[in-house]
Specification:
Radius of gyration: 19 Å
Oligomer: single chain
Largest sheet: none
């Protein structure tokens, strides 16, 4: 490895805004089982499916309709 690197000609990652951040969520067992079953049917990892579903909700600004 070099002792020093020259980053003066570097540029920002154009895909940086698409990166993911690791978080911890508490999900119901039934929710996890649902997405794992869907994962087996589609071949898409269940964590990706959860992300895709939440992404769809966020982009469409879907609101939760529930009464307490």
């Amino acid at each position: 490895m070099r002792k020093e690197y020259d980053f003066s000609k570097s540029h920002k990652n154009p895909y940086g805004k698409y990166l993911k951040k690791q978080v911890t969520l508490r999900l119901g067992i039934d929710v996890i089982e649902y997405f794992k079953k869907l994962s087996k049917e589609t071949g898409v990892p269940y964590q990706n499916l959860i992300n895709l579903y939440l992404q769809d909700c966020a982009h469409s600004q879907k609101k939760l309709n529930w009464t307490s």
